[in-house]
Write a structure and sequence with these properties.
The chain has helices at about 5-10, 165-170, 225-230, and strands at about 10-15, 20, 40-45, 50-60, 65-70, 75, 80, 85-90, 95-100, 100-105, 115, 130, 140-145, 150-155, 160-165, 180-185, 190-200, 205-215, 220-225, 230-235, 240-245. With about 250 residues, it is mostly beta strands.
């Protein structure tokens, strides 16, 4: 069973005190395959003077694991340049870069830096985000929950943002204080915890006060569900998904 089918088989209907709703089992936007499970998905901000976004995902053996514009992370060695980003050096959990002539020091887990933007981002972040699909037609943007880096999978079939307990612990989310909810899966009923996330960020678009459910099962990605997506008007054209901020 492939990873995408295994994930969809795991989650069936999410039931809370307020009733029953569709869970993450069906692909996002049904037959149009708006769900995202590919690692190599591009992310761009559709603003005229957009800055390039660079994030440091890890440091190992003198190499830096770098995420550029939401694409899949790649290892870089000191002196190497990719898409105008040059790694100068690494030390501990930080790395020094030259990004289009500007020197930047990045820490592992920090929010991406945006270099080259002329206008300041409006309150709440960008008003438009454009996601580019991979070869399989999937969307999977890198992002942040409460300021900590996560890997999202876009899924309009998920009512809320859904993450695993291991991801919750990694980002220091105290999910145990959340309201318990019953979740029916293909393998039976499990108990999750519904919580309120302080912020969810994709690119430069940040939404505050986002409902989520933390489940005990391991998950390869955080499902980016409708508690975030409904803040945007979504339009897919060929291999691009445009999210325009509604409120």
């Amino acid at each position: 069973m492939t990873e995408v089918h295994a994930l969809r088989a795991l989650f069936g209907i999410i039931q809370g005190a307020g009733g029953t709703s569709r869970g993450a089992a069906r692909p996002a936007m049904g037959r149009r395959r708006l769900g995202a499970l590919a690692v190599a998905a591009g992310l761009a901000l559709a603003t005229p003077a957009m800055g390039q976004q660079v994030a440091l995902s890890g440091v190992a053996g003198g190499k830096a694991l770098v995420n550029i514009d939401g694409a899949a992370p790649r290892f870089m060695t000191p002196g190497q340049t990719h898409q105008g980003v040059k790694l100068l050096s690494t030390q501990g959990d930080s790395a020094v870069f030259d990004i289009h002539g500007r020197r930047q020091v990045l820490q592992v887990g920090d929010a991406p830096v945006s270099v080259g933007r002329t206008p300041a981002a409006p309150e709440g972040g960008a008003q438009r985000v454009v996601l580019t699909a991979d070869a399989q037609g999937h969307f999977m943007p890198a992002g942040h929950i409460n300021g900590r880096a996560v890997q999202f999978m876009v899924d309009t079939g998920a009512t809320l943002v859904i993450l695993s307990e291991s991801d919750a612990r990694r980002i220091n989310l105290d999910h145990a204080k959340g309201r318990k909810v019953s979740v029916n899966t293909a393998n039976g009923t499990v108990v999750g915890h519904q919580v309120q996330l302080d912020s969810v960020r994709v690119g430069d678009a940040q939404v505050y006060g986002v409902a989520a459910i933390v489940l005990p099962q391991p998950m390869p990605y955080v499902l980016l569900g409708n508690s975030f997506l409904t803040r945007f008007q979504m339009q897919r054209t060929n291999d691009q998904l445009t999210l325009d901020r509604r409120f």
